[in-house]
Amino acid sequence: MPLQRHAAIGNAVATRRVRLGLRQSDLAREAGVSETTIRNIEAGRIGGRPTKWPLVERALGWPPGSFETLSAGGQPPESLPPGSRGAPCDDWPDRLPRRIRDELAEHDLFDSDVVELGEGLRVVVLALETAPPAADGTGRRRRAVRWEGVRHRLRAAAAEEENLTQ
């Protein structure tokens, strides 16, 4: 399978995961695979033996054979995975500040995270792609590394703040 098709599968998996509100670790747990497997798939590093594909397809709510459909240039049908709750409420976008709605409308979602701050507070962080990644897949990998660094620093800052208030 050509590298461009690997990148297309990786991009589609990452996009679907984010649309479902899942982190890589959540998808790995749902699929029963390692987080490294999910990272590799999303980075376009897909091995020649697709033994894990059906597990990931099922966790994403895609029918069997969706990876093959993607590799042929198609798109799997959109559906929620079994047991998925769907959106908690339909009007949440209307409650966001206008500048946030504008950013979300203008850019593609790369990933998201929720950081617990304690005392009944949490931060929801959205990473948006403001330009398309490089076609060879390296742009998405660099963005993933940068995003993981930001997530780590956010969690470290939240933990440090929690320690200061105790």
Automatic annotation (TrEMBL):
One of its GO terms (molecular function) is DNA binding. SUPFAM superfamilies: lambda repressor-like DNA-binding domains. Pfam families: HTH_31. Residues 13-67 form the HTH cro/C1-type domain. Residues 66-94 are annotated as: Disordered. This is Helix-turn-helix domain-containing protein.
